[in-house]
Amino acid sequence: REKPVALSGINEYFCVSLQGGVNDEVTLAAYITIALLEIPLPVTHSVVRNALFCLETAANQKENHVYTKALLAYAFALAGNRDKRKALLDSLEKEAVRKDGSVHWQRPGKEPEADLPFHRYRAPSAEVEMTAYVLLAQLTSQPAPAQEELTSASLIAKWISSQQNPNGGFSSTQ
C-alpha cells in the first residue's frame, strides 16, 4: 500500500476557511444556544437559561469581534431579548460597510477589495455568514420588524444575493 500524501497547505486552507469568523468559547456557546432555541427549547429550560446568562455576560464585553456580535444578536433575537438584540444591532450598525446601495459586514483589518473591470468580488464565506446572521437578527423580532428594520434588511439581502455564484450557491456551504 502507498502512504497517503500530506497536503498540509491545502488542509490548513480548508480547515481555516470552514471554521467561520471566530474560533472561541463565546461563538461556540452562541452556536449551541441558537441551535437549542431553533429546536425550539423554551428560554425557561435550564440549559437555555444558563447559556443565555453566559452570552449576556459575554455581550457586555467591549471588545467583541463583529462576527461574535452578529451571532449574539441572533441568539438574543431568538430568545426574545429585545434590549440585548437592539444594543448589539446598534453596535453592528456602526461597523457596517455601505457600498453600491447595499450593506454588509467584514472582518476587522481586512484589505479593501480591488475594483477590477471584469471581475466580480466575492467575499470570504465567513463574511457572508456573519452578514446573514445580522439579517436573521433583524428579521427575528417580536413583534414583527418595524419598517425601518425591513428597509435595512433589504439592503443586507441585496449584498448577500450579490455574493451568489452563477449556480445560485455561495463560496461554501456555510
Automatic annotation (TrEMBL):
Pfam families given in the database record: TED_complement (PF07678)
Domain Alpha-macroglobulin-like TED per the UniProt entry, residue ranges: 14-174
Source organism per UniProt: Rhodinocichla rosea
Cellular component per GO, a single term: extracellular space
Name of the protein this chain belongs to: PZP protein
Name of the gene this protein is made from: Pzp_0
Cited InterPro entries: A2M/Complement_sys, Alpha-macroglobulin_TED, Terpenoid_cyclase/PrenylTrfase
